[in-house]
Amino acid sequence: MRIPKVFHPILGVLIGAILFLIGIAVLSAAFVLAYKVVQYAKPFIVEVFSNIIHQLATLMPL
C-alpha cells in the first residue's frame, strides 16, 4: 500500500509527536523510580553514616 506524498509530512510530525510523548513517559517513570529508590534507601544510608560518624568520634575525641 502506497501512502500519498501529501501525507508524508503529516505522518512524520505524528510519529515525532508519539516518540516525544513516549520519551517523556519513560523519563518520568525513571525519575519516579529513582525517587522511590532514594526514599527506600534513605534509612539505611543514614544508619551507615551515623555509624561511621560514631566510629570516628570514638577514635578521635575532641
Give a short synopsis of this structure.
With 62 residues, the protein is mainly alpha-helical. It is 84% helix and 0% strand.
> In one word, what is the shape?
rod-shaped
Range of strand content: under 5%
- The number of helices is 1
**Structural class by secondary-structure content:** mainly alpha
**What radius of gyration results from the CA coordinates?**
26 Å
Look at the structure and give the mean pLDDT. 93
Sheet of most strands: none
What is the share of helical residues? over 70%
End-to-end distance, in Å?
82 Å
H/E element order: H
- Classify the oligomer: single chain
Number of strands: 0
SSE map:
Layout: H1 8-59
Describe this structure in words.
There is one protein chain. By secondary structure, this protein is an all-alpha fold. About 85% of the residues lie in helices and about 0% in strands. The chain has one helix and no strands. The longest helix is centred in the middle third of the chain and has 52 residues, at about 10-60.
